[in-house]
Amino acid sequence: MEIKTLTWKEKELVLVDQTKLPVDVEYVACKTLEDVFVAIRDMIVRGAPAIGVSAAYGVAIAAYEITTTEFDLYKTELLSQCDYLNTARPTAVNLSWAVEEMKAVINGYEGQSVAELKALLEKRAIEIHEEDIMINKTIGKNLLSLVKEDNTILTHCNAGALATSEYGTALSVFYVAQEEGVTLHAYADETRPRQQGAKLTAFELYNAGVDVTLITDNMAAEVMKEGKIDAVIVGCDRIASNGDTANKIGTMSVAILAKHFNIPVYIAAPTPTIDMAIESGKDIPIEERDGEEITIINGEYVTAKGVKTYNPSFDVTPAELITAIVTEKGIVRAPFKEGLQAIFK
């Protein structure tokens, strides 16, 4: 069964509803900017690259939604809609990156034709989509150079095809390996509280024919101790200029364990996810989500109602725990600041 994370069709963004997987495969058609905003906010679409591509299409949709034909009013309203969309989720930098790319088209346009600007915005959104596919495949090839035949890789959360346009970031290594006839094995952390590892990663790898084993988050130390893991590969939502990396909550714990057991940790990072404007992880905003993600499982409370919760959606893995940051432009090792600066030159 082929599942398309996102499709642009007749000026609508069609998303697979990731809140329904793996039980049901349902699609949501986003016909308005508000539809895209809600899809990002409520995690119908998730994964930094997929959020970025969706945001680009969201701006294109907004461009077609606005009815005024007076150019200056149109431009003002469209830029305001861009700023609104940018508030959907705070941590993944791809959202703001994509919005800024679309704003650059708006601000760089020197004509006065609303129709022409609409067409240019749709064209740029499609380009961002196509670029994402190529970026992910190249990351997969770079990751494959770091592992060996028959290796077993532990991953956390979902950074696969469902989190991007195709291939994925962290999981791209498995798909590229299949294309090149290399056998790799996967261990997937369940990833509480929303269980993206169980619901998404295990689901998509299993359906792709990859040998995948699901574990709960608190089993990671044991499988490492038993020598079952050769490398850890995870995606990311934002990387600071010093290499500190924000990813799904629990990633830092995995990295600490890997350091203890002398297992390499690789971060799969499209360059739009690297934020050279911030110095370190302490500058990355961390989204805190509703406590009911912790207290309710499958519609039932698993704790006393009213108990206090703390539910940060991400944590920041310090650069010193990271073996390499793997981008479409190459593999970056410490010192990360210099290496990351070099790939943007």
UniProtKB/TrEMBL annotation:
It comes from the Bacteria. The keyword DNA-binding does not apply. Coiled coil: none annotated. Keywords: Amino-acid biosynthesis, Isomerase, Methionine biosynthesis. GO terms for molecular function: S-methyl-5-thioribose-1-phosphate isomerase activity. It is an enzyme of class 5 (isomerase). Pathway: Amino-acid biosynthesis; L-methionine biosynthesis via salvage pathway; L-methionine from S-methyl-5-thio-alpha-D-ribose 1-phosphate: step 1/6. The record marks C157 as: Transition state stabilizer. Its EC number is 5.3.1.23. Belongs to the EIF-2B alpha/beta/delta subunits family. MtnA subfamily. This is Methylthioribose-1-phosphate isomerase. The active site is at D237. GO terms for biological process: L-methionine salvage from methylthioadenosine. It comes from Vagococcus silagei. Catalyzes the interconversion of methylthioribose-1-phosphate (MTR-1-P) into methylthioribulose-1-phosphate (MTRu-1-P). It catalyses: 5-(methylsulfanyl)-alpha-D-ribose 1-phosphate = 5-(methylsulfanyl)-D-ribulose 1-phosphate. InterPro entries: IF-2B-related, IF-M1Pi, IF_2B-like_C, Initiation_fac_2B_a/b/d, M1Pi_N, NagB/RpiA_transferase-like. PANTHER family: METHYLTHIORIBOSE-1-PHOSPHATE ISOMERASE (PTHR43475:SF1). Substrate binds at R46, G47, A48, R89, Q196, N247, K248. Transmembrane segments: none annotated.
